[in-house]
């Protein structure tokens, strides 16, 4: 066989989006993956070891992107997936008519693939501040291939 006949498509297994951590070591305000969603843990309770072996951890968590409450029960000795969560600040350049924002990255490039936030108060603050000509910095949270604007800072007039 010649080298031209081998065409492999690269695929992403998603393994780099999360890392394993023992359920018994995950604490409140940490992160966990529940039903394929990145969540922030708001409550953890651990039951005692029962007749059938393992102590169990009961997690109550809030999805970091849509705010939904999710729950999961995992044996404390088992591994859970924990998402890699990143927060990045970008300067707001423009808000387009179709609901996308244009952001300035640290290296001087633009990032144009983010939509306006769905949170009404954040959306109003962003639109009003931009209309007033203020210099705005947005905080973008990213995890598991998803990105959303989660906060806004006013750094003064332009």
Give an account of the 3D structure.
The protein is mainly beta and 158 residues long. It has 2 domains: 15-83, Roll (SH3 type barrels), CATH 2.30.30; 86-157, Nucleic acid-binding proteins (OB fold (Dihydrolipoamide Acetyltransferase, E2P), Beta Barrel). It contains 1 helix and 11 strands; from the N terminus they run βββββββββαββ. The strands form 3 sheets. A 5-stranded antiparallel beta sheet has the order 9-8-7-10-11, covered by helices on one side. Strands 2-3-4-5 form a 4-stranded antiparallel beta sheet, with no helix packed on it. The protein has a two-stranded antiparallel sheet with strand order 1-6. The N and C termini lie far apart (63 Å). The relative contact order is 0.17. The model has no long low-confidence stretch (mean pLDDT 85). Residues 1-20 are annotated as: Disordered. Residues 1-10 have a biased composition (Basic and acidic residues). This is Eukaryotic translation initiation factor 5A. GO terms for molecular function: ribosome binding; RNA binding; translation elongation factor activity; translation initiation factor activity.
